Amino acid sequence: MQSEPSENPDHFKAVAELYHNYLTSILLYVAANKGAEPAGDLSFAMFRHQHLTKFHSSFEKLGVKGKPDAVACAQYHYLSNAIGGVGVEYMYESDRKAWIRFRHPRWIYQGTALAGIPKQVSHGFLKGWYAHNGVTLGNPRLGFVCTSLDTDGQYGFAGYFYEYDHDLTPEERLRFAPGEVAPPFDPALVPELDGGTWPELRLQKANRNYSMDYIKTILPEISNIFGPLDTVWLGGNPAQLIGREMYQQLADWFGVSGESPMDFARLMGAFGAASGDQVSIAETADGAQVSQSTWRLMRDRGVLHPSVFDAWNGLWIGLLAMHNRFLVLDIQARMDHGDEAFIWRIRPRGDAPVW
Q1: Residue 314 and residue 233: Cα distance in Å, rounded?
Q2: Closest to 62 measured CA to CA, from 174, 167, 203, 166
Q3: Are residues 132 and 73 part of one domain?
Q4: 325 contacts 354 by C-beta, under 8 angstroms
Q5: For position 289, which CATH number holds?
Q6: CB-based burial of residue 355 (10 Å sphere; 0-12 exposed, 13-18 middle, 19+ buried)?
Q7: Are 22 and 242 contacting, i.e. CB atoms less than 8 angstroms apart?
Q8: Quick check: 23 and 214 in contact, CB under 8 A?
Q9: Which residues pair with 161 in a beta bridge?
Q10: What is the distance of C-alpha 351 from the center of its chain?
Q11: How much is the pTM?
């Protein structure tokens, strides 16, 4: 049975929320087990990759192309994050100075996670993305001034893009000025997306893609920085934990209520369809089988070490542990090993102990 492409907003939301929580859990897990500086290095690598692949190419899509660089950058971050469901404010001061402020609750550090995120993670995304805007735009005078960081106990993440009168050295592209306060936010003065270009369905898919893109970036970067063995540990363990923690929400969103192998196969099929993948499910003599012939999550990432799949597959292991802990998930084929599809077999555990 082939899962049909989903147009259900709740299904898009389910995909977005799972990957959103997975991202936050990875940052916490790396900080707790590797330390603040390695977590900051991972944040830098993730955001620099995101910046290089998305920033300039999205200017026209968001309608900011042709505006003064400082204004275009601030409006870009306001609009792109709003699409992802992130609370952001934009304040224009001049053609050379434009502010942004990310309100609480912070999307990437949601809930109690904010209390466990070291400030190095924030410094990583500032250096990886915000300080590099001028470089990407070919404007050596454009920098970013950070005036507030929530990981330092301030009023959210805030700052402004500023075009100086001189070319900046690499060290000058990011400056901290905690004594400066962002001006008041006026919702009547913010840019808006073109409703004709961004209909509701496209916005819902973009919100899903926003979360997916972070996982698409961070798992390969874990492999690059920490190596394959640590990728399975640092990416796979939080995947299993988040799968367990979010199972009931996903089951509710996708309308799964039973505990059989086919019920779980339906969950996998529905999730894959909502992610934009081709998935088929079938009942077998001793359980169920799921075949996924595309992996949109890692599309365009090139050749990946198998540890990236092993880490991501932890989500399914964690989800199945809550669906029915007397079932086991076997992998029978893998696209990252050259097969035509990922094929999972869901079957009873047998006589092995259930942990």
Answers
A1: 10
A2: 203
A3: yes
A4: yes
A5: 3.30.1380.20
A6: exposed
A7: yes
A8: yes
A9: 98, 144
A10: 39
A11: 0.94
Could you give phi then psi for residue 138, rounded to 5 degrees? 75, 25
- Retrieve residue 43's tokens: 């944040």
Tracing tokens 């049909």 back to the chain, one arrives at 4
Q: Are residues 88 and 163 in the same domain?
A: yes
As a whole number, mean pLDDT of residues 199-218 equals 92
Digit-coded pLDDT (tens) for 48-95: 999 999 998 888 888 899 999 999 999 999 999 988 888 899 999 999
Mean pLDDT of 185-198: 86
Tell me which of 156, 189, 222 is where a domain ends.
189
Edge-first strand order for the sheet with 287-292 is 279-284, 287-292, 342-348, 327-333
Domain count, the chain: 2
Residues 6+ apart with CB under 8 A from 61: 197
* Tokens at 86, concatenated: 């992130």
Q: Per residue in 295-333, is it b (16+ CB within 10 Å) or e — as a string?
A: bebbeeeeebbebbbbbbbbbbbbbbbbbbeebbbeeee
Which residue type does 244 have?
R
Residue matched to tokens 């081709």? 278
What digits encode the pLDDT tens for the residues 260-285? 999 999 999 999 999 999 999 999 99
